[in-house]
Amino acid sequence: MRGLDLKGLRARWKAALGHAAPLHLPRHLLFGVLAYRIQADALGDLDKQTIQLLKRIGSAASANDVAPVMAAFDQRRRDLLPGTVLTREWNGRNHRVVRTAEAFSWEGRTYDSLSSIAFAITGTKWNGPRFFGLRDKTPVEVKE
């Protein structure tokens, strides 16, 4: 596609998308949209949740409105499904935690939270998700 001129990209667009390309799009945008469409057709498109997130971000009035939307999306992605295995090395020893349907399992015992497992491992209070690498170490600032 890189060798195609504007006319060639428009023809490729029509073949790939089934309709004429918008006349106002410059070559680099035609190329980008086409490249995305070909990749998505070959490898799969974005999932429904990500598409909804992008639509919400696109309709946000300001960057400050985007932060809570992103935080909620990130939280859903951090929710662990049963069967998820978390590992953490601590003091030269590897620890393996398994998410069960309603709790967490570590060394044959059941715990109600990752924080209680982190405490059992270290002997000190920890934010369990942070201990197991599920949280950002520094907050992200939103600049407008």
Written overview of the protein:
With 144 residues, this protein is an alpha+beta fold. It has three domains: 6-43; 48-78, no CATH class; 85-131, no CATH class. Helices cover 48% and strands 13% of the residues. The protein is built from six helices and four strands. A four-stranded antiparallel beta sheet has the order 1-2-3-4, with helices on one face. A hairpin with a 2-residue loop joins β1 and β2 (93-99). α1 packs parallel to α2. The longest helix has 17 residues, at 27-43. The protein is elongated, with a radius of gyration of 23 Å. The chain starts with 5 loop residues before the first helix and ends in a 13-residue tail after the last helix. The relative contact order is 0.08. The model is unreliable at 139-144 (pLDDT under 50).
Largest sheet: 4 strands, antiparallel
| Computed CA radius of gyration, to the nearest angstrom | 23 Å
- Number of beta-strand segments: 4
How many separate structural domains? 3
* Helicity level: 40-55%
Query: Structural class of the secondary structure composition?
Result: alpha+beta
* Percent of residues in β-strands: 5-15%
- For the largest sheet, list the strands in their spatial order: 1-2-3-4
Order of helices and strands: HHHHEEEEHH
Poorly predicted regions = 139-144
Quote the distance from N terminus to C terminus. Answer: 36 Å
Label the overall shape.
Answer: elongated
Number of helices: 6
Q: Would you tell me the overall average pLDDT?
A: 86
